[in-house]
Amino acid sequence: MAALAFIITLLAPPASARLISSPKAAAQDDAAKKAEADAYKAWYDAYTAKDTGKALDAAKSYLDKFPSGEHATYLKSWITATRGGLFNQALQAKNTDTMIRIASEVLTAEPDNLDYLYILALAIRQNELFGSPPNFSHAAQEEDYSNRAIKLIEGGRAPSTVPKEKWNKNLVLSTLYQNVAVIAANQKDTDKALQNYEKSLSLDPSNSFDYLACGSLRQVKYQAAVQKYSAIPEADRTTDPPKPEVKAALDEVNKQADTVIDCWAHFMALTASNNEYGATRDQVGKALMDLYNFRHPDSPDGLNKLIDQYKSAGGSSSSGSAGTATEF
Length: 328
Known about the structure:
The protein is mainly α. It has helices at 2-11, 15-20, 23-48, 52-65, 72-93, 96-109, 114-129, 139-154, 169-186, 190-203, 208-230, 234-237, 244-270, 279-295, 302-314.
């Protein structure tokens, strides 16, 4: 009824306005008011018919034509609330395409809307990147949302959808950097993946997943270093003193082996009392032991001491999750 009253008001200009206007100006004024009233009625008819898609189009059409119109403030609020409701429905249904479509409309007008960026980054992470099996069909969008959210949060922003008492800036940033790392690893960009895993770990040093992934990526670099060293003719590898290029290749093998050991020793320490990884932890433990014995053949108890050292320093394990995607 209130909406109908607005239409009546628009269709009936105040008498005072007609008295002080020329006939031509009054006619133009009446035509403008009728056009605005018709645009509003188009929205209202779609709204009362519960045709949300048509109502959204009508509301946007009204605002395009009458950005300062009588109903502009209300329709802006209605569009915001309606989009939020539709986004929440898509979020609950895990419909990523619909979430992205709705959010794109918002982010076109408000590119720094952290609420949408943050929820999208978490939702795609939960539903796809860390799904079973993992799904990277929206990896490009996920990387974009994560990076944009990182920039805003590092700049001091926080999403309004998260209560202040539950906001953990470092944990959220760690999770977002981890998103970028997971995508880079899937794209075989090892250096980019390691850079982002290390950034994630600098924010959440108790993140066992990051150490597991970091060790696996370092192992790739270790194996590449071993292949490069093994490709050197044996005669050149056994000269005394070694040639500079041989020494450099062997140093790289040892360096990469040590980085694998460091990552996986942290992983073993963090998961010692709470193993969420099942048989994977056993496999890592065996590979770690073999690699440690290769680097330290005269120190049979060295690995256990290293793991114990990291247990004392590492605290409880974190999987790096910043929580679930929150509704608007």
